[in-house]
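name: query_chain
kind: protein
chains: 1
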Amino acid sequence: MTDKIITHLRHVDIAVPDFATQREFYRSTWGLTEIGKENGLSYFAAEGSPEQYVVRLRESRDGDDKRLDLIAFGVESRTDVELLAQQLVADGVRLASEPAALQGPGGGYGFRFFDVDGRIVEISGDVATRRHRKVEEREAIPVRLAHVVVNAPDPARTRDFYARHLGFRLSDTLRHPHMGDLMYFMRCNTWHHALAIAQGPHVSMHHASFEMRGLEEWMRGQGRATRLGAEKVWGPGRHAPGDNVFAYYLDPHGNGHEFTYDVLEIDEDTWHPSVFDAALPEVSDQWGTADPMDELVVSKLFNTPDPLFTPPPV
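structure:
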């Protein structure tokens, strides 16, 4: 595996049956910018991010329920796309699509494959950047997509897959003295984590996290979400792993979404992964302002099972 071939997280793609309600959630409640809509697809950008879009929303039809369609990561070039595809095939990883020109906003070149749990991952390079801007003071909209967290029945197996095949590095582990490893925080650049893998009863999306400009904007984002009726699951507080502030909500279809700020940037030359004791309340929330991380909070972020080894229709 070529080390550090993945450069960053691009977008998370989900499908829902109530397309109109979910679109309104992203526009009004979550503060994203809808940049295009066609043929049952809608694309949402974060104003502070050069990524063409950070969320792709698809209308599920013909009785299909909601699902995580895919998680997309970027590489530097078409050459890296080809190299990674060849390495995955050589390692026995099953591709869902061969490297080819991409048709979404920004174009580019990429392919899709199934990870060890059966979820779809997209890799792309040479995607055109979007004209973005500085998010202004007190403007409570996301700057970027910070990370995605997934549920996995065997999180150690999932961790090892992303480390071996995609070059992700372990930043920290959240461990409970009686329940074992609860979460692995994985990075592909200097941010503490772009992907985290949580212990869960089935394969599903745990949450997608969006970084705000600052504490003031983070608080104002929560106020807007609460006033518009989004269910707050947990927060506000500040985690120990990653040292970021958090507030978790459910969208209208029960998918977890987080407003965050101040995610830790690390020096890869000196960083050593730590194991955090999940039984200590200050690990889940350094401030002590959030409710305890109990079984109810955990279960709300289990989400519903995703279809496995089943590509989305587009």
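note: The mean pLDDT is 96.
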